[in-house]
Amino acid sequence: MRAIKLAALSLVILFIIITGISLFIPSNIRISRAINIKADKEAVMSAIRDPTRWKTWHPGMENAPLLYVNGKPGGVILDSTSMERPVTIIITKETPDQVTAEFNPKKLRPVTNVWQALSYSSNDSITIQWYMHFNLRWYPWEKFSSLLLEKSHGTRMEEGLGRLKKLFK
Q1: pTM, 2 dp
Q2: Could you tell me the residue ranges of all domains in the chain?
Q3: How far apart are CA 14 and CA 163, in angstroms?
Q4: Selecting from 3.30.470.20, 3.30.530.20, 3.40.640.10, 3.30.470.30, what CATH number does the domain 27-167 have?
Q5: Which residues touch 79 (CB under 8 Å, ≥6 apart)?
Q6: For the segment 1-42, what is each residue's pLDDT rounded down to a tens digit?
Q7: 84-105 pLDDT per residue, tens
Q8: Do 123 and 37 meet the contact criterion of CB atoms below 8 Å apart?
Q9: Which of helix, strand or coil describes residue 3?
């Protein structure tokens, strides 16, 4: 009986320590990548703005079915195994210089994707910045898993921006 109490107390104390350490990890994480593309800003932004063209440059979108919003393509469905809550990326805001899309994963909070075009008057190219904004809960497993977000999502973002640049060569 003493061994069971000791084990239970040890697990509770270990959970409190791990939770305390995780509170030092920020809840808002932003991963950003940028690339210079020698092309017209409107042409590049139209490729980003149009979900039917995502399969040509966005990693993982090659076979993703389109999601129609108000009769026009407004995003893609990444996983439709659960029709109650499918995994989607939906465009939520568009301006001439910026496109915002919301990635809705199954178990995490929505992740905001933003593609922004930065142009300079003295340069013949534009800079496309892509960032993902994660808003995590206080759960220790979410906080510690955020330490791996840069590695997992950053490389895919670099790959996508590289493909986007190749479209306009």
Answers
A1: 0.83
A2: 27-167
A3: 45
A4: 3.30.530.20
A5: 86, 87, 106
A6: 888 999 999 999 999 999 899 889 888 999 999 999 998 889
A7: 778 889 999 999 999 999 998 8
A8: no
A9: helix
